[in-house]
Amino acid sequence: MPLPPLGVRFASPREHSRRGGHITLCRGDFDVVNEELRRRGVVPDFRSPDGIRIGLSPLSTRFTEVHTGMATLAEVAAERLGKKGQDGNAPTDGGFRHRRRR
What we know:
Layout: E1 9-10, H1 16-19, E2 22-26, H2 30-39, E3 45-47, E4 51-55, H3 63-81
Antiparallel strand pairs: 1-2, 2-4, 3-4
Helix pairs in contact: 2-3
């Protein structure tokens, strides 16, 4: 399930030249989502009052960590809204699809 149906909005400028090396996602209850993410082992960069900043460092962050973090964010956001995926479970992919490298 993509993040927008879960009430998550993209707060950073869409133009790469204006946004720098990170993006910020916002939702009114991200203060609570932040605490649940930490409980589940994801360490977010919470920005008061309602933002979670995502900035990646290729030297210390693996793709699998990004995928797990975004999937957990989507899962917690869905749980808080009471939404489920098509299979009856909370979404597990954060709405992101990745391709295998050839």
